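Thanks for the sequence, V.! I ran L,d-transpeptidase ykud right away. Repeating your input here for the record:
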Amino acid sequence: MNYSILILLSKRQLMLAKNGKYFKSYPVGVGKFNTPSPTGRFMIVSKVPNPGGPFGVMWLGLSVPHHGIHGTNNPASIGGQVSKGCIRMQNRDVIDLAGYVTVGTPVTIRS
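Predicted structure:
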């Protein structure tokens, strides 16, 4: 399958597409004002289950250093500007997303 991810920072929303058609949407937490999430085109470069700490149950590393899409140990943070630039998801949502995507999946982050 041909999956891709679009993250809309202003809407705090991650959308998953299959063959160019969006079929899933998830609420996310994004970077703080002083540590904004990067914008641009990236790809998933790693998938790490149970990374520990604040990263919840899954880490999907991006091709921009020190940034990723991950779960959280603070579910109340979803929907806010709360991170150091990473994209936070509910643990159940990041597990669902990880079931679709692989290393190499393109990720576009827009303001």
